[in-house]
Specification:
With 138 residues, the chain is mainly beta. The protein has 2 domains: 45 residues; 81 residues. Helices cover 7% and strands 39% of the residues. The chain contains 1 helix and 8 strands. It has a 5-stranded mixed beta barrel. β5 and β6 form a beta hairpin. The radius of gyration is 16 Å and the shape is globular. The termini are far apart.
C-alpha cells in the first residue's frame, strides 16, 4: 500500500506555509498529520486536501528539557491546536515568549506558520519542517 500523502510531499508543502491533510471519501473525516488509514473508519479511500491552518489552542506546555540535540532551542512552547476543519495537531507557538506562555492562551485563535528543525540523530539526517502557530491578535 502506498501513502496517499508521503512525508516528502507534506514537508515540502509545509515549507511553503501550506498544511496538507487527508479527507476520507467514505466517512468525510479529515486527518492531519497524514496517516495510512482514516482515523474514524479505517478506510483507505482518501484524497489529499489543503487545510486552512487556522484553529484554536486546546492546551499548551512549555518545554525546559529538550531532546538530545535540541538544547539550543530551549525553552519553547508546544500547543495542541484544533484546526477549523476538525483535526487536532501539535506545533510550536513561535510568537510568544515561552516564559510568559500561560493558560490565558487556551482558546485563542491561531494561524499556521512553520519551523524548520535541524537534522538530528532521530530524524535520519533530514531537516524537517514542523507545524508552528502564531497567536492571532484580536
Amino acid at each position: 500500500m502506498e501513502y496517499r500523502l508521503p512525508f516528502r510531499q507534506y514537508n515540502k508543502a509545509l515549507r511553503k506555509n501550506k498544511l496538507l491533510g487527508l479527507k476520507c471519501n467514505d466517512c468525510g473525516k479529515i486527518t492531519c498529520p497524514p496517516t495510512m488509514a482514516c482515523s474514524k473508519c479505517a478506510g483507505t479511500n482518501m484524497e489529499v486536501c489543503e487545510l486552512s491552518g487556522n484553529g484554536l489552542i486546546v492546551t499548551l506546555s512549555t518545554v525546559y528539557v529538550a531532546a538530545r540535540g535540541r538544547e539550543a532551542e530551549l525553552p519553547y512552547t508546544v500547543a495542541l491546536v484544533e484546526l477549523e476543519e476538525g483535526p487536532w495537531i501539535m506545533g510550536n507557538l513561535i510568537d510568544i515568549d515561552p516564559r510568559k506562555a500561560g493558560m490565558d492562551l487556551m482558546g485563542k485563535k491561531t494561524a499556521l506558520s512553520f519551523k524548520v528543525c535541524p537534522a538530528d540523530e532521530f530524524s535520519a539526517g533530514v531537516a524537517a519542517a514542523r507545524p508552528a502557530f502564531c497567536v492571532m491578535r484580536e
